[in-house]
């Protein structure tokens, strides 16, 4: 994992003292691992509430005070299918300089390893959970993918991975290519691309783990 983080990121961690994070406990652990000299007691960390979101007033106060602020995602990239975009918008509105730090993105890594079209692609986020919206969305995305030759990328809550796979196999056409990317960046990583017809012959039992799904209609 650490090989994926550029050296300049460690320099940023060494000087930042204010953070907005998804989980304060794991954020502190990550920061401590990145900097052995970091004094955790000096950090001011605001946690993003699952229901009400980030403390925007506090964030704006920090911006007004001219503080450098870090936004940390729990498992992804801030603002990309993850909290953070609203805070970044507030930073722009305040005239603050916004600097994205280089790091791994499961969405792009999955696309890179899928063998699907990397020239034209669209990230669709989460698909609807309920029917008939779910099946309609799958059919529509597949049709758009086929017409435009555009890779469609989406994700799901880990405990619903198998249900999403079942719905794709049920409502998609046999020739459509599906890539399932699991545990990206870990020792358990698995990235496999097959046609829906091939997946149907031996449907896998997916773990309750972070996954990225990519389709390309043919």
Give me a quick take on this structure.
The protein is α/β, with parallel strands linked by helices. The protein is built from eight helices and eight strands, in the order H-E-H-E-H-E-H-H-E-H-E-H-E-E-H-E. The model has no long low-confidence stretch (mean pLDDT 92).
Looking at this protein, list some descriptive labels.
single chain; 218 residues; alpha/beta; Cobalt-precorrin-4 Transmethylase, domain 1; Methyltransferase, Cobalt-precorrin-4 Transmethylase, Domain 2; 2 domains; 5-stranded mixed beta sheet; 8 helices; 37% helix
Give a structural overview.
The chain folds into two domains: 2-93, Tetrapyrrole methylase, N-terminal domain (Cobalt-precorrin-4 Transmethylase, domain 1), CATH 3.40.1010; 106-216, Methyltransferase, Cobalt-precorrin-4 Transmethylase, Domain 2 (2-Layer Sandwich), CATH 3.30.950.10. The protein is 37% helix and 19% strand. The chain has eight helices and eight strands. The longest helix is centred in the middle third of the chain and has 16 residues, at 133-148. The model has no long low-confidence stretch (mean pLDDT 92).
């Amino acid at each position: 994992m650490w090989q994926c983080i550029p050296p300049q990121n460690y320099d940023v961690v060494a000087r930042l003292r204010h953070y907005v994070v998804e989980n304060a406990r794991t954020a502190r652990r990550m920061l401590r691992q990145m900097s052995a000299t970091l004094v955790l007691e000096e950090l001011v960390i605001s946690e993003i509430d699952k229901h009400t979101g980030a403390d925007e007033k506090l964030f704006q106060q920090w911006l007004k005070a001219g503080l450098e602020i870090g936004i940390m995602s729990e498992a992804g990239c801030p603002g990309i299918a993850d909290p953070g975009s609203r805070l970044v918008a507030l930073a722009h509105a305040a005239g603050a300089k916004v600097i994205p730090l280089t790091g791994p993105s499961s969405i792009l890594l999955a696309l890179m390893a899928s063998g699907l079209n990397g020239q034209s692609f669209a990230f669709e986020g989460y698909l609807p959970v309920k029917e008939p919206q779910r099946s309609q969305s799958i059919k529509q995305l597949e049709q758009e993918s086929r017409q435009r030759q555009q890779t469609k990328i989406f994700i799901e809550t880990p405990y619903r991975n198998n249900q999403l796979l079942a719905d794709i196999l049920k409502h998609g056409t046999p020739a459509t290519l599906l890539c399932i990317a699991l545990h990206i960046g870990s020792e358990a990583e698995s990235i496999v691309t097959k046609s829906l017809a091939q997946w149907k012959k031996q449907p896998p039992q997916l773990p309750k783990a972070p996954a990225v799904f990519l389709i390309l209609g043919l």
